[in-house]
Amino acid sequence: MYRQYLSFFGKIQKLSSKCRMKSTAAVPKLTMSDGREIPALGLGTYLGFDKNGMVSSKDKQHRDLVLKAIDLGYRHFDTASIYNTEDEIGEAVEMKIAERVVTREDVFVTTKLWNTQHKQEEVASAVWDALEKSGLDYIDLYLMHWPIGLNADYSFSDVDFMETWRGLEDVHKLGLVKSIGVSNFNKEQLQRLLEEGSVRPVVLQIEVHPQMIQEDLISFARSEDITVMGYSPFGFLVERFGKQFPGPKMDDPVLMEIALKYGKTPAQVVLRWLVDRNVIPIPKTVNPKRLKENISIFDFKLEQDEIEKINRFNSNKRYTEPSFWQTHPHYPFEQVKDILPDPFKGLGTI
Ligand SMILES: NC(=O)C1=CN([C@@H]2O[C@H](COP(=O)(O)OP(=O)(O)OC[C@H]3O[C@@H](n4cnc5c(N)ncnc54)[C@H](OP(=O)(O)O)[C@@H]3O)[C@@H](O)[C@H]2O)C=CC1
Ligand SMILES: O=C1CO[C@H](CO)[C@@H](O)[C@@H]1O
Predict the structure, then answer these.
(1) Mutate which of 46, 49, 207, 234 for ligand 2 pocket (most atoms within 8 A of beta carbon)
(2) Which of 95, 134, 155, 236 is 20 to 30 A off residue 8, Cα-Cα?
(3) 319 in contact with ligand 2, CB cutoff 6 A
(4) For residue 150, which phi and psi values (nearest 5 degrees)?
(5) What is the Cα–Cα distance from 110 to 44, expressed in whole angstroms?
(6) Averaged over 23-50, what is the pLDDT?
(7) CA atoms 336, 221, 41, 78: torsion sign
(8) ipTM here
(9) What separation in angstroms does the CA of 214 have from each of 111, 134, 335?
(10) Domains and CATH numbers, the chain
(11) Which residues does the annotation list for site: Lowers pKa of active site Tyr (predicted)?
């Protein structure tokens, strides 16, 4: 059995290196409810936490990665004020525009408002900050990162997310951001936004991977013409808030069998599973080989029964579960017993 596995895995490796050699096709686009187009795959740029807090790029490593990504065909970059990557993404975009590889209109940059700037009047200054850091003259998509308002010392603020949404509507009206949306909102919070807001959110960004398939929320978003972006597509591989979770790994027989059929890697199958469910994956990698692997997913399509096979991994397991905020009135997820320490405390207003 073990031998069979090894030869199976060997075949996958060969096939995947062959497919990595092929040139990448252009990333297709989806149309959002405001009529604007968004690339169907983006590059995640959250570099993680270490003992000193959020990880930042060193020696322009991340700028160089984004330069490579643009050469490979990536046109969509997902960042946030807390990721500390807005500056190097902007620098890379500017360089590629100067080289005439892309125009500003070819590139789509998503960034997010952090929880410590939720007062309506703070939103514009947060956007100006993002524009200054990135050197861009507008943001394509601006998301409220969480429905949770915090004070500068990370105590809970009483700012309601509808007040924050009005701030996003203001910057949208000013043209500083072309489209607005939200991240980590649950169905009831989205419903409230749709009922009370003047501008509809065009995008919902949530955690989506084989262990968190988000069937209900995705179908609700679809019924409201809200485009879904899926974060942590490889969530089952990573450690979050100091916790490692069990889950299907890349050598899972179900993923491997589908991968073998298409001459793809299990990682590519997972990304394609998101695309075929109309969810925009934003995989993060700092590895040049995986950068190419993750974009080479537009020359095959999963069958419905393959999508369902992957859906069966679902266990509603969240990797991003900031339980330290769970007593906040707008905490979007179910309550858990195991409350983790807050790693954001001390980062200040970013
Ligand atoms: N709105 C929100 O609250 C959140 C948004 N996000 C966004 O979503 C993005 C993606 O999510 P993220 O949690 O970073 O993690 P991912 O699930 O995208 O990636 C997890 C890890 O998988 C590895 N990996 C990437 N590609 C492959 C591959 N082909 N084969 C094997 N391993 C691979 C990467 O390591 P390596 O770099 O070594 O390749 C990475 O550290 C973030 O970067 C961020 O932009 C994420 C979390 C929350
Ligand atoms: O975007 C994010 C990146 O990951 C963090 C956790 O490690 C999240 O809390 C945050 O929302």
Answers:
(1) 46
(2) 236
(3) no
(4) -130, 150
(5) 10
(6) 91
(7) negative
(8) 0.98
(9) 23, 32, 17
(10) 2-325 (3.20.20.100)
(11) 112
Question: From ligand 1's centre to the CA of 43, what distance in Å?
Answer: 9
Contacts of 14 (CB under 8 A, 6+ apart): none
Q: Which amino acid is at 113?
A: L
Count the alpha carbons within 13 Å of 336 in the hemisphere toward its beta carbon: 15
pTM: 0.93
Residues 206-220: tens digit of each pLDDT? 999 999 999 999 999
Lowest mean pLDDT among 16-20, 31-35, 306-310: 16-20
The response to whether residue 108 sits with its C-beta less than 6 Å from ligand 2 reads no
4: enclosing H helix or E strand: helix 2-21
Tell me: the pLDDT tens digits for 310-338?
999 999 988 899 999 999 999 999 999 88
pLDDT in tens, 268-290: 999 999 999 999 999 999 999 99
